Amino acid sequence: EIVLTQSPGTLSLSPGERATLSCRASQSVSSSYLTWYQQKPGQAPSLLIYGASRRATGIPDRFSGSGSGTDFTLTISRLEPEDFAVYHCQQYGGSPSFTFGQGTKLEIK
Amino acid sequence: QVQLQESGPGLVKPSETLSLTCNVSGGSVSSGSYYWSWIRQPPGKGLEWIGNIYYSVNTNYNPSLKSRLTISVDTSKNQFSLKLSSVTAADTAVYYCARLNVGNIFWRFDYWGQGSLVTVSS
What we know:
The structure holds 2 protein chains of 2 kinds. By secondary structure, chain A is mostly beta strands. Chain A has strands at about 5, 10-15, 20-30, 35-40, 45-50, 55, 65-75, 85-90, 100, 105-109. In chain A, the strands form 2 sheets. In chain A, strands 2, 4, 5, 6, 8, 9 and 10 form a 7-stranded mixed beta sheet that branches. A 3-stranded antiparallel beta sheet of chain A has the order 1-3-7, with no helix packed on it. In chain A, a hairpin with a 5-residue loop joins strand 8 and strand 9. The model of chain A has no long low-confidence stretch (mean pLDDT about 95). Chain B is mainly beta. Helix content of chain B is about 0%, strand content about 55%. Chain B has no helices and 11 strands. In chain B, strand 9 and strand 10 form a beta hairpin. The interface of A and B includes residues 44, 54 and 90 of A.
């Protein structure tokens, strides 16, 4: 099973700042299968980035994803108040395995 | 717009079977480009994939749950279901149904239900 480790666990920033979130895999992951989700309190996760770098429909361009192999990054270029949430990375490692990272909480400083 | 909605008991006794149903609207559970999935999140913890069903009969299960798990589809009602037997307190979680989109080589859970909290307690 591929383990995803997200860092930091909590990131404290102010609106307008740049956020960089990391997702590291225990084995190489195909970029086609690396996905990021945003989860706000009391809500289901929502699709943010898929294929490591492709924004889902309706996602603002301040969100970007990058990386390959074992290291992937989610960047939010300029934080808006609505961006403070928990972010999860997820991978598909071949049937039947889907795994998620433990999440990064992005909080207002 | 695709919408998914979970339903089922919020409280299950230890050793009994947890049963949830996901009603799908705005799309068909018989569609070939999608897997229909269950994912759970224990309180304050991360997400865990439970399993998928595809084309109404092909299932993939998390190996850690496989011996207790059944996922099925009812195409006449456009819904799919989860049964998890012999539950313990460790199965207490918010259970989400979700659509796994496998189109264009990019696999992603693109639509999610709102979630259903299931507590295992006597």
